[in-house]
Amino acid sequence: MGQDDWIKKEIESELLDAFVDSYSLITSRVIDEIESSENPDFLAMIDGQRSGIEVAELRAGSEREPYDYIAEAWRIAEKKHISYNKRGLFSIPIFLVFFASEHPLYEFYKGIADIPLEDFNDLGFSEVWLADLNEEYFSCRDPRRPADLYCISPEEWRGFHRYGNWGRKPFG
């Protein structure tokens, strides 16, 4: 593994930590025994079941609308689905977690709710999540500011999720 690959894996690991913290607070499900992998990026036990977690960055750009954000997520998810399906990697449940550090999810999640998301259900991923790492609403150094999440799939969790409220410390 080259230095660039090592740095990428370290960043993915930090992003995953932010997701795991928020996911557990929101769903009350436990993700533990996380280990680095290649395809998917991580293997973990999720509520006692061996699962994979694929981390992908969404580069939404500053001028994007909610539809563009979801279209980019779909493009990446479909590409990963084709690759994973071809190699038989869906033998275990795999979570797909998108991260973005620009365009705060909180500011346009209502627009995402107006977009049909059912097509994501056919891509083989057991769960698909958007995680907001925008510094306006999240801090990796402050546990009182966990990442906001938006569940695309499964339908039981679909929608915007925030642990606490906007006035949570250190805001209020």
Give a written overview of the molecule.
Helices cover 29% and strands 24% of the residues. The protein contains three helices and seven strands, in the order H-E-E-E-H-E-H-E-E-E. It has a seven-stranded mixed β-sheet. A hairpin with a 5-residue loop joins strand 6 and strand 7. The protein is globular. The relative contact order is 0.16. The model has no long low-confidence stretch (mean pLDDT 85).
Number of H/I helices: 3
Task: Determine Rg (CA atoms, Å).
Answer: 15 Å
* Mean pLDDT across every amino acid position: 85
CATH secondary-structure class: Alpha Beta
**Count of spatially separate domains:** 1
Mind summarizing the main beta sheet?
7 strands, mixed
What is the CA–CA distance across the termini? 44 Å
Strand content: 15-25%
Order of helices and strands: HEEEHEHEEE
Work out the helicity level.
25-40%
Structural class by secondary-structure content? alpha/beta
Spatial order of strands in the largest sheet:
1-2-3-4-5-6-7
Low-confidence stretches: none
Which oligomeric form is depicted?
Answer: single chain
CATH architecture: 3-Layer(aba) Sandwich
What sort of overall outline do the alpha carbons produce when their principal axes are compared?
A: globular
CATH topology: Hypothetical protein pa4535
Number of strands: 7
Keywords:
172 residues, alpha/beta, Hypothetical protein pa4535, 7-stranded mixed β-sheet, globular
Q: What layout of secondary structure does this protein have?
A:
Blueprint: H1 3-27, E1 31-36, E2 42-46, E3 49-57, H2 66-86, E4 94-100, H3 109-112, E5 127-132, E6 148-153, E7 159-161
Parallel strand pairs: 3-4, 4-5
Antiparallel strand pairs: 1-2, 2-3, 5-6, 6-7
